[in-house]
Write a structure and sequence with these properties.
The protein is an alpha+beta fold and about 500 residues long. It has a domain of about 210 residues: FAD/NAD(P)-binding domain. Helices cover about 35% and strands about 20% of the residues. The chain has 15 helices and 22 strands. The strands form 5 sheets. A 7-stranded mixed sheet has the order 6-5-15-16-17-14-18.
C-alpha cells in the first residue's frame, strides 16, 4: 500500500550557500511541527564561496524567510547592485550596461521597445540607458530602493553583492534557530532502499547513520547522492560555453563604492569585479583550451584596481546540468545539479528556483512520479533558458581578435536562440517566454549592447505618429535623468542604513 503520509525526516547533505538556503527555507515554510531537518557538513570539505553577485529574485527568497534587509546587508558585508556593466564585449573599447528594472514606459498595448526601435531605425533614438533609472543611477554611483508614486523611482530594480561565506553563516543561524540540526561529518556510504530505487540512509565517517524520507544533495560538483548513488549523468555544454576555470582574488577597496558588477572581456574569457563593503571580489573566468593557468593569473593580477589581500585561488568547473534533478527521494541543488557560466550571476537564483519548485511539489512519502517528472521538466527549462541567454553574450559579438572569440562568434547555437535572433533582426522584438528568468529588458540590453540591430520595428508602433513617439521618448528620458537627483550616493545610503560593523 502506498504511504501517502507527510514527510517525517529530511536530510541535507552538504552546507555552503545551497545547503543552508535549503535548510532555512524548509524550516521556515514547514514550521516547527513539520519534518525534522538535519544538515550534514564537514569542516574537512571546503566550499566554493567567493564574493557573490546576485539578481533581483533573491529579494523574494529573503522575504520568504522574513529577513530584514538591512540586517542581511550588514551581516554579509553587502552592497547593492543595479545591474552589470559590460566592458570590451562587443569590441575593445566599447561599454554597455545591462540594468535591472525596466526601460521606459509602455503606451497601452505598444511596448516601449517598439517605440524605441521605431526611432532607432530612423536614426533618432537616444541610447537605451537614457530610459533606465537603474542604468543612469549606476553610472552616477547612486542608490535607493524603489519609492511609491508614479515616477521612475518606482521602477528601481536591484539585487546585492555579498560575501557568500557570510551569507551561508547568516542563513545557518536562521535555520538552526528554527530547529534545523547540523551534523558534523563526512558521508562515506549511501545505503539504498531494498525495495525501491531510493536512498534509505547515509553513513558518516564515524560510523553513524542518518536516515530520512527525503535527501537533498548539496554536496557540490561531486554530486555524491544524485550522481554517485542515483546515477544521474552530466550534460556538458562546453561546446557552447567553453570557460572551464576561474581564478579569484580579493583586493582592497579603492575609489567609490559602485552599485553594479563589472564584467570585462579578456582574450579567452572575462574578468569580474564585485564591490563589497570590506573588499572587492575579482576573478578571471577562462577557457583552459585557449589560456594557461599562469597566463590567466597574470591577466587578472595586471587588471586589478586595488592591492591584493590574498594569493589567487583557482577553481575548475564544467558548464552544464544533470539529466535529472530529482530521482526517487533525492533532489539535487546548487553545484550538485549543474553549473552555469557565472557571467549573469545566476547560481544563487538556480538554488532558489530549485527550492521554490521543491516546496511547490513537496512530496509525501509516496513520492508521486508525476511530481518528479514535472520538477525535472521545469528545472530543465530553467537551465536551458539561462544557457541561451549566456550564449548570446559570447556569440553576438564583433570581436574576432583571438581564436576564442572567432570560434564563439561562428559556432552553431541552440535553435531557440537562433529564433530569438531572427525575430529581433527583423522587427527588434524581444520577449519573455513564459516565466523564464530573464525579462525583455535583459534581452534588449544585451541584443543592443552586443551590436545586434533590427531592419525594422514592431508593427504595433506603426500606428503612432513619429512626432508623438519622438516627444514621448524625450519626456521619458528627461524625467528619468531628473529622478536620480533625488537618490543619495550608494556609499551614503549604506552608511546611513546598513553599514557593517
Amino acid at each position: 500500500m502506498t504511504d501517502n503520509t507527510p514527510l517525517q525526516r529530511i536530510a541535507i547533505v552538504g552546507g555552503g550557500t545551497a545547503g543552508w538556503m535549503a535548510a532555512a527555507a524548509l524550516a521556515r515554510v514547514l514550521g516547527p511541527h513539520g519534518p525534522a531537518i538535519t544538515l550534514i557538513e564537514s569542516e574537512e570539505i571546503g566550499t566554493v564561496g567567493v564574493g557573490e553577485a546576485t539578481i533581483p529574485p533573491i529579494q523574494a527568497f529573503n522575504a520568504l524567510l522574513g529577513i530584514d534587509e538591512a540586517e542581511f546587508v550588514r551581516a554579509t558585508q553587502g552592497t547593492f547592485k543595479l545591474g552589470i556593466e559590460f566592458v570590451d564585449w562587443r569590441r575593445r573599447g566599447h561599454r554597455y550596461f545591462h540594468p535591472f528594472g525596466v526601460y521606459g514606459i509602455d503606451k497601452g498595448a505598444v511596448p516601449f521597445e517598439a517605440m524605441w526601435q521605431r526611432l532607432h531605425v530612423a536614426g533618432e533614438a537616444q541610447p537605451l540607458e537614457s530610459y533606465s533609472i537603474c542604468a543612469i543611477a549606476a553610472r552616477a554611483g547612486r542608490f535607493m530602493p524603489p519609492q511609491p508614486g508614479n515616477t521612475p523611482l518606482a521602477h528601481i530594480g536591484y539585487a546585492f553583492h555579498f560575501d557568500a561565506a557570510l551569507y551561508a553563516r547568516f542563513l545557518r543561524d536562521k535555520a538552526e534557530a528554527a530547529g534545523v540540526v547540523r551534523r558534523e561529518g563526512r558521508v562515506v556510504e549511501v545505503i539504498r532502499s531494498g525495495s525501491r530505487d531510493f536512498i534509505a540512509a547515509v553513513v558518516l565517517a564515524d560510523g553513524s547513520r542518518v536516515a530520512a524520507d527525503l535527501f537533498i544533495d548539496c554536496s557540490g560538483f561531486r554530486g555524491l547522492l544524485i550522481a554517485d548513488a542515483m546515477g544521474a549523468t552530466f550534460e556538458d555544454w562546453g561546446h557552447w560555453l567553453p570557460n572551464d576555470r576561474a581564478v579569484a582574488i580579493p583586493t582592497a577597496n579603492t575609489g567609490p563604492l559602485t552599485p553594479y558588477t563589472r564584467s570585462t572581456a579578456q582574450s579567452a574569457g572575462w574578468q569580474w569585479r564585485i564591490p563589497l563593503q570590506h573588499r572587492v571580489g575579482n576573478g578571471h573566468v577562462y577557457a583552459s583550451r585557449h589560456l594557461s593557468d599562469d597566463e590567466a593569473i597574470a591577466t587578472l593580477l595586471a587588471n586589478l584596481d586595488g592591492e591584493p589581500l590574498t594569493e589567487p585561488r583557482q577553481l575548475r568547473f564544467r558548464t552544464g546540468r544533470v539529466d535529472r534533478f530529482w530521482i526517487g527521494n533525492c533532489v539535487a541543488l546548487g553545484l550538485a545539479s549543474g553549473f552555469m557560466e557565472p557571467l549573469e550571476s545566476t547560481s544563487i537564483h538556480l538554488i532558489q528556483a530549485g527550492i521554490a519548485r521543491m516546496l511547490e511539489m513537496l512530496p509525501t512519502r509516496a513520492f508521486e512520479p508525476a511530481d518528479t517528472r514535472r520538477y525535472n521538466r521545469l528545472m530543465t527549462a530553467e537551465f536551458e533558458s539561462i544557457r541561451d541567454f549566456l550564449i548570446l553574450h559570447f556569440h553576438a559579438t564583433e570581436r574576432r581578435d583571438t581564436e576564442y572569440w572567432r570560434r564563439l562568434a561562428t559556432m552553431p547555437i541552440p535553435e531557440a536562440l537562433s529564433e530569438r535572433l531572427a525575430i529581433y533582426a527583423r522587427t527588434g522584438r524581444v520577449y519573455r517566454e513564459g516565466d523564464e528568468l530573464f525579462t525583455k529588458t535583459s534581452w534588449l540590453a544585451v541584443m543592443d549592447g552586443q551590436g545586434r540591430t533590427a531592419d525594422g520595428y514592431d508593427p504595433l508602433a506603426a500606428g503612432m505618429p513619429l512626432d508623438e513617439v519622438r516627444a514621448r521618448l524625450e519626456r521619458i528620458a528627461a524625467v528619468t535623468h531628473a529622478a536620480i537627483g533625488h537618490m543619495p550616493a550608494h556609499a551614503d545610503f549604506i552608511a546611513r542604513h546598513c553599514a557593517a560593523v
